[in-house]
Amino acid sequence: MFKNLQLKAKKLGAAIGFLILAMSSTHAQQWEGVGSTGSISIGGSSYNNLAIDVQGNYYVSYYDVSVTKGSVQRFNGTSWSYVGGNAGITTATATYNSLSLDTSGNVYYTNQWGYPNSGMEVRKFNGTSWSLLPLPFTDTTNYQASAVAPNGIPYVYASVGSGTVKRLVNGAWEQVGSANVAGANPTHAEMVIGTNGKVYVCHVASGVRVFENSLTASATDAWSLVGGTLVGSAFTEGANATSDIAIGSDNTLYVVYSSTAANNRKLNVKKFDGTNWVQIGNADFGISNDLYNVSIAVTPSGKLYTVASGWAANGGKNTVYQYNSVSNIWETFGGDFVSDDAALYNDLQYDAVNNTLVLTYSQNGVRVKRVQLSNNTPGCNNADPGINPGDTSCVTFTYKGQQVTYTTVRGADGKVWLQQNLGSRQVATAMADAESYGDLFQWGRWDDGHQNRNSATTTVPTTNNPTGLSGITSFI
Predict the structure, then answer these.
(1) Where is there biased composition of kind Low complexity (predicted)?
(2) Superfamily the domain 32-372 falls into
């Protein structure tokens, strides 16, 4: 399951406080088939991966039972077609595979090099054809992941040597950090890359653990355990006992996993607050016990969604949940079930171009469904607050490429103010409420990512001349 690492952010406007209001109708939260109400594959499938490019095109990779090879398909807004023109792009079976995209339109597909061979194959699609890149690993590898850094360099992970990461530089694979990332036999690996110069690996190794390293790490630079401890004790029985990681636009890490049998294998979501792994919402949630095939997605504004399938209950159907930050609980989203039968290999992603949530899963083949997200918080009509100081209302506008809604308040000076900082997750509940701090803008700069609290810093000053402010030679 691989995430789009860079989303095109929209500019806020020429001045702070000058908001672009979004007046649009809300949509029913109804899951609909993407390009087809049934399977988009000819036969059965497994190990599905979903990725969405910056134009809003969908890519799905999977082990294609009909040809006993790996296949990749693309949805261009109207119909599905095989990337490269044909099904089955691998040389042999490819039950384990991964999919990632860069912002230039290149597609990277990794797969287990099937018997009697061993290792990992990596292919690149340049818009016209697939090319086989040098093998990053020749030892037997099952679990794998891939991601592309903001500078366009692809990174791959393999369960070789208890977890190893490599990057492709000038046509050759270089090892990133020391081998033996997990220090144990890792399973169910996922990898994300932030805009902060770091790469993160999440896998199950005596519990769910997340490790980090610099994108420029040498082969001797050690991997660090994020938070210094495991994220949680996870259920690990079987190929579908997955965990998943997502990274927010502010580089916040989110992890979902199923608890152990002692806690009925229910869902848990945690985030890393910079120091500790913190529970998000209620622990051990879900409409049934024995949940598996988990995936998580986060919008640029920090809205969280997760999906899981029931194992022993509900016929194995999958359910999507959304986090309600007001009541601090997880709720079903778009109905109790997305599928109408047993669903495997879930992958959930957010489409920033069309403001939709997209889900792929296996149910007698590859299914892809999506749901349109509301642009406005229910009840928000963008009206001004009342005339009395302390009267509140709300406003909806575009920030970081996503529709957000904030509470507004009438101040004692008669002006209308936002009741919370841009980029914050909630109105402050105390002076030291870190969730209310929000983003840190430098005067005159656009919403270009610099305002994220954990964005990269430099001691070297650079010229700051924002587009649209020509002729200004000094700043305060």
Answers:
(1) 457-467
(2) YVTN repeat-like/Quinoprotein amine dehydrogenase (2.130.10.10)
